[in-house]
Amino acid sequence: MRYLPLTQSDREAMLAVIGAASIDELFVDVPGVAQLDGPIHGLPLHASELAVERHMTALARKNVAAGDGPFFLGCGAYKHHVPASVDHLIQRGEFLTAYTPYQPEIAQGTLQMLFEFQTQVARLLGTDVANASMYDGSTACWEAIVMARRITKRGKALLSSGLHPHYVSVAKTMAKFTGDVLDTSVPTLTAESDIDQLIASIDGDTSCVVVQYPDILGRIADLSALADACHAKKALLIAVVTEPVALGAIKSPGEMDADIVVGEGQSIGVGLQFGGPYVGLFGCKEKYVRQMPGRLCGETLDADGRRGFVLTLSTREQHIRREKATSNICTNSGLCALAFSIHMTLLGEAGLRALAETNHAGASAAADRLAQVPGVELVTPAFFNEFTIKLPQEARPVVRTLAERGILAGVSLGRLYPGEADLANGLVVAVTETTTTEDVEALAVALQEVLA
Amino acid sequence: MTINASGWRPETPVVGNSTAPTFTGNKGLMLEEALIFEIGSAETTGVEVAPPVEAPSRLGTLGRAKPIGLPGLAEPEAVRHYTRLSRQNYAIDLGLFPLGSCTMKHNPRLNEKMARLPGFADVHPLAPVDTVQGALEVIHQLAHWLVTLTGMHSVAMSPKAGAHGELCGILAIRAALEARGEGHRKTILVPESAHGTNPATAAFAGYAVEDIPATAEGRVDLAALTARLGPDVAGVMITNPNTCGLFERDMRAISDAVHAAGGLVYCDGANFNAIVGRVRPGDLGIDAMHINLHKTFSTPHGGGGPGSGPVVFSEALSPYAPLPFVEQTSDGFRLVEEETADEHHDHSFGRMVAFQGQMGMFTRALTYILSHGADGLRQVAEDAVLNANYVLRSLDSTLDAPFGASGPCMHEALFSDSNLAEGFSTIDVAKGLIDEGYHPMTMYFPLVVHGAMLVEPTETESKAALDQFIGALRSVAERAKAGDVALKSAPHFAPRSRLDETLAARKPVLVWKDPELAVAAE
């Protein structure tokens, strides 16, 4: 067993120190009914590194990787290029194999990184403060709704029809148990978002309005009027960002006076990974900081007066407050936050803006090209790097047919909204810096053939 | 100035740590590192992006006008910045990491290599199912191992961490009770020695929480538990092996009593490492249990996440498990999402998270499991328990072991600070251990023991490593028993001396602000 250092003679010597005749004596408190007398039946025995590598590699080969051909999937997870040094640095053992920084004197590396991450995230989202990350965007979104309930003492949340349907599902699941009232709807294939309807729906029971920016169809809309309408009724505006690269090109939700901004940080540094682990972003106005969920890192001084960092305001958290905590969460997504922070440091202001510009231009050009395909109609006039087209037939089978040709054409709205006939012809197409002009041409040509 | 828990003050003289300051502030290989906001600039970048193609802007009126304030570093600077930061961290790769309840075992690098295969790392969660059969098979294979090892009926793979798994289990319990028309059961019983996540989870799921006392030997008081059961109790959350490091001998009796009273049993599987491959919790009547892949199955802790917390269910609870999940059919694997919910799945309590869960952790955990196999995992449990008992018996004449007479410990050894000198506490021993080159043990938990010190060595420590750690802890404990004041200002040899946590909480500084701008604003 290559991971187990004890030898048989070690074990015997240690049993002698303990005063036990055998290992079995150490399990004496376990009822016999639950004890197995040997390796569990029906499962394979230990294997060499080479054998395991072969097994896993064979499984990996059964998947089509995003880099294997033209690729246009988005909807909450995006393919971006991650610099090689990011993965090198996060694999340093001091980061990879460290624990939560509960002993700050020997965890300054993680703590300083988290402080830098919090600052980067707050500036990107346009909020005063940000936490040290959440599991992912969908859980961050629900935690924000709970936080708004705590702040406003009201129990009704209005969810925009443009909010990612999985995020809506998570909120609906949790609301069943917490008693929160959620006002939800599905989007329509129109150019305009539902901001006007949301403004009209805010009333004295509304704790918050949750709006995605850019939304699930890729649409972008000014949130300022919505923020004003929320504040006029003493409700909070929660903005959700699933593509943080967009904020290199468009105004941040914080600039438009959103109270809480949450997001999925996967685009920066993390990679697709079939949906996880990802990194939830969570920022808010300073006045709400003590109502925040999750971990926070703060600056302080050591006994010699030197600057240092610690986890702070932990009286909000479960290990101190138990059943009165702001959330049951006891971890963040530390290593993914590190990947995000390193990538963001490599980009810097100039790099992020250049990246955003390249994404937007590529998407804009792709939208023009796909709109030339007979029967295809561009639905979204204003977008960042993701847009929706309407096909003359259901998009889901078209996506499957194109996948057989080695083109991953986008996310069909039929996949995201099964049973919504009005959306079945919609296809959401994402374009990033990894998409080439040739990729777009291949998609356009193939789409024309399949639709003919 | 503030006083910390031990009565130590910042003005207390530091003993034996006075050296002339250097020009840089560095001390040999101990390198100070500024913040990126102090060394980067808005013009600097470490990436090269292809220029944009010619295309009309479609940003409307929303184009960004104001600067964001993100400093950049060129690649050499960035690599150096993060490498320097990393060297201020303790880590498993550097030495024994004895945090009780955290299972800080070696993180094999084959796991990392496999998780980075493009067929796993570069796959989109919404890719057509026919193009991700291998990813679904990984989930299916890991699920099979988890169900078989625990002797349970099914597993929900999507929870993102241990606490998220707890929430999953409690929501399934609540959904099952409501389906039975027993939604009036509003109370969850939690032992007083439980992790704080347990009561927080129960409360987050809408339950009232009541404590169950522990016996003098560190186990759940069965009589007190049984007496409290009744028509208002939804269930119990029990950690087994428990946070005192002991196996709950009465687990079967606890389960039977709870079931007889109409409740359900949640088991916190944080300490599964002590029994993996040797004991099947499913044989003890539990209904749901989460498994921390980042503990028992070696996926890296990463400085605080990401974790992964799949939940195994009994047959009674399986219909209520969350979506999505993977099913094997005659023509390959399919992903059961909201859209395909049929009569077999319409009891599911719903979706807990976008997409499918922590795939990157599934590949690592499966790699680890296949490496050990059924025999190796059994050896893991035995060596973990052997190592913990070796620590317990090697130190119980130096430190007070409050439950030393309660039978063998499981994966972790528990000590108290009751025999230290007047004015000395667990924190002084912990900070003294830092100077000895170790990360401290878990401090002040569980709450049922005064000044608890919870030591979990794990199976990946050699006897020589344990002997050195035992020697170091014994030495520090003897100093604390003798009242060595130098311990009060420890650590002396870490990148930082004791940090003022009170100051951090009283005047929170959570983001960097340019001091020049701050002065101008005033």
Overview features:
heterodimer, A: 452 residues, alpha/beta, Aspartate Aminotransferase, domain 2, Aspartate Aminotransferase, domain 1, seven-stranded mixed β-sheet, four-stranded antiparallel β-sheet, 38% helix, B: 522 residues, three-stranded antiparallel β-sheet, globular, EC 1.4.4.2 (chain B), Aminotrans_V_dom (chain B)
Secondary-structure map:
The complex is a heterodimer of chains A (452) and B (522).
Chain A: H1 8-18, H2 49-61, H3 84-90, H4 93-96, H5 108-125, E1 129-130, H6 137-152, E2 156-159, H7 165-178, E3 181-183, H8 195-201, E4 206-212, H9 224-232, E5 236-241, E6 260-264, E7 280-284, E8 297-301, E9 307-311, H10 318-321, H11 334-371, E10 377-378, E11 386-390, H12 395-404, E12 411-412, H13 413-416, E13 426-430, H14 437-451
Parallel strand pairs in A: 2-3, 2-4, 4-5, 5-6
Antiparallel strand pairs in A: 1-7, 6-7, 8-9, 10-11, 11-13, 12-13
Helix pairs in contact in A: 3-11, 5-11, 6-7, 8-9, 11-14
Chain B: H1 36-39, H2 75-86, H3 109-115, H4 118-121, H5 133-150, E1 154-156, H6 162-179, E2 187-191, H7 197-204, E3 208-212, H8 222-228, E4 233-239, H9 251-260, E5 264-268, E6 288-290, E7 311-313, E8 325-329, E9 332-336, H10 359-395, E10 413-415, H11 426-435, E11 442-443, E12 453-455, H12 463-482, H13 501-506, H14 515-521
Parallel strand pairs in B: 2-3, 2-4, 4-5, 5-6
Antiparallel strand pairs in B: 1-7, 6-7, 8-9, 10-12, 11-12
Q: Classify the fold: give the CATH topology of the largest domain in chain B.
A: Aspartate Aminotransferase, domain 2
Would you identify the regions of chain B where 5 or more consecutive residues have pLDDT less than 50? none
Evaluate the radius of gyration of chain B. Answer: 26 Å
* N→C terminal distance of chain B: 25 Å
- The CATH superfamily name of the largest domain in chain A is Type I PLP-dependent aspartate aminotransferase-like (Major domain)
CATH architecture of the largest domain in chain A: 3-Layer(aba) Sandwich
Please identify which CATH superfamily of the largest domain in chain B we are dealing with. Type I PLP-dependent aspartate aminotransferase-like (Major domain)
Helical content class of chain A: 25-40%
The total beta strand count of chain A reads 13
CATH class of the largest domain in chain B: Alpha Beta
- Shape descriptor of chain B reads globular
Tally of alpha and pi helices of chain B: 14
Q: Element order, helices and strands of chain A? A: HHHHHEHEHEHEHEEEEEHHEEHEHEH
Which ranges of chain A are low-confidence, i.e. pLDDT below 50, for 5 or more consecutive residues? none
- Note the main sheet of chain A: 7 strands, mixed
* Beta-strand fraction estimate of chain B: 5-15%
GO biological process, one term (chain B): glycine decarboxylation via glycine cleavage system
Domain Aminotransferase class V (chain B): 183-302
Region (Disordered) (chain B): 1-20
Catalytic activity (chain B): N(6)-[(R)-lipoyl]-L-lysyl-[glycine-cleavage complex H protein] + glycine + H(+) = N(6)-[(R)-S(8)-aminomethyldihydrolipoyl]-L-lysyl-[glycine-cleavage complex H protein] + CO2
